[in-house]
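Exercise 7 asks you to align residues with tokens for two separate proteins.
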Amino acid sequence: MKKDIRRSYGYLSIALIASFIVIILDVYISINIGDMANAAISKDKNLFLGAAKIGIICSLILLLVNIVSDYLYNLYKLKATSNLKCNYINKIFNKRINEYQKENIAKYISGFTNDISTVEKDYVENIYSIIKNILRLIVTFVLIVSISVRLLIFMVLLGVGSTLISILAAKFMKKYYKKRSGLYEELSVYIKEILNTFHIIKLNDISEKIKSSYLNKVEKVENENYKIDKLDTISGGLQELFSKLLFIGTYVIILYCTKEGIITLGSVFVVGKNIQYIINPIIDMTTRIPSFISTKSVFKRLEEIKESSFESDENVKISNLEEIRIEDLSFGYEDEKVLENLNLTFKKGHKYLVVGQSGCGKSTMLKLMRKYYLPQGGGIYVDNINLNDITSDSYYKCISNIEQQVFLFEDTLKNNITLYKNYTEEEIENAINLSGLRSFVDNLPNELETMILDNGKNISGGEKSRIAIARSLLMKFDLLLIDEAFANLDYETAKNIESTILNIPDITVVNVSHVIFENNKTLYDEVYALGS
């Protein structure tokens, strides 16, 4: 993940150069103030007015450069976080479906929200601020040493003490950051779970139990936040002590040097103006360094989420498929065997109905054919090529799916049917007619431009199923896999849609269903019965 941020280091460098110019101008203005003070004391009017003019001009330039510096910093932050988020989503979409499903979705959500936000705040922003503070300290140290070496030695000693406190605090905070990240994930998983089962919670009157569990998990997260805040407070208190000592000690030294005639009164003004640029950067860095170092555990966690857990064996691309052969296929969930030594053949252009009792493995067989899971025994062969060796992208271009669970995007009906692909109006209208959506579309206020909300909460289950069917009919495919697609449709509509699908020539249809229409049975070339 750090590589993604490094790609924005060019913008970071430009932003830091602009910041360095701001620092130089600021220091020059403070020197100019010292010259004005010395000129005022010596009553040199010309020197005073000359210094004043230069100060005004430099202040105007400083204002402009400061604006540019802030703009460049924001541009760096934009590029860094965009690279980070884009690469994270790309890595997730590079996972195969069977690999993606091994993890709880909330783990990915936690990565997007909590972990990436932590990296943005504690790494992306801090790396700029820490380097900027170091530049500020270097320039100010050079200025101070030109006035008094004793003063610089005093400042360095206090600065070293302050830095040691920061490093010590970072060591403890790293542990708490790692634990908090894990607890955030658990909380995200639980929130997703209770929101998905809201109706079950209400119907079974377990709201109090769920709220109690939720508050317990929140308390654990907040306890870790409290520990981090407590360390921050202790560390901050010690830093404040060092800053006060630095402030008081600096003025004691410069006033003593002025009394002894070692430095001029103008130098007192210069030091007075720049002492904040010693104290503030040290205080700022001592709070930023611990959180910056602590992001190491967050980066590690993000890497674990996005990295593939196994090497891909996919190396064969296909452009069409003629025959799918299932040989001695076995698969189970944990200790329960669902499929064992299954042997079936599906030929190009033929239509197959797969029936069987609930739990006999019908839907599991389709998931294996979709590459959602890998076989645990035997194999699936496409034109004598092991399905495991075929690239997912090329295989998915040859198949289409109508699944039990239909997901709809919060977008227009048209985009939900086309899935953001380009089709002609004629193709879209044909899919709408064949799927039985015609009257539904005609009765909508904005027809195809009507918005579908929150996974279809503003339409019926039957309409969602028809949209899924229309999606599939739009695609150019060799194999259509149907999993209980007609369960949510009325009898006549389901029968007519099934008949339409079965009469499409040259495509292979594998329909897993417990809904059997006697009038359409003759349209199937073969009926396979799984289980007993």
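Second protein for Exercise 7:
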Amino acid sequence: MDSGANIRDTQAILDAKAVIVKAARSMASVIEESQADSERFALWLSGEAQAEWERQVRLRTTRLNEARSELMRKQMQPTADGRPPSTVDERKAVSRAEAAVASAEDRLRRTRHWIMEYQRVLANFRSGLGSLGTFVDQVAPSAVAALNRMAESIDAYLAAQSSP
């Protein structure tokens, strides 16, 4: 014996539709924010970060050249007793300046590496967001339309059942 469906209203369908609409709006907002943040970081990395380390390399190279010049000046200065002057401090300054230049060059090299790596990761991220965007743009509206059709059919069924 077929007892039929015991449907009294479409509230559950309307609730499901509201959840899908809310989720799609939230996802659209998250997608937009994520894209903006990732693009902003890419611009910063390839712009400001790289420019700062290029500037640091130039600045530290200038300081290294100054330290080397100071060392040369000191080596050229005769002492009162004719012995070579002590250049310990100047040699330490040159060594520190060389380390500073090497550090800045390394950071610039790493920044350039991460610019390339981030572009690769960003491409993967964009493709992943594309799938989520498809859900927001196509699947969610289709699901909402299907739920609307179901609710209309159920309402028509209920109206037919209540008619004498």
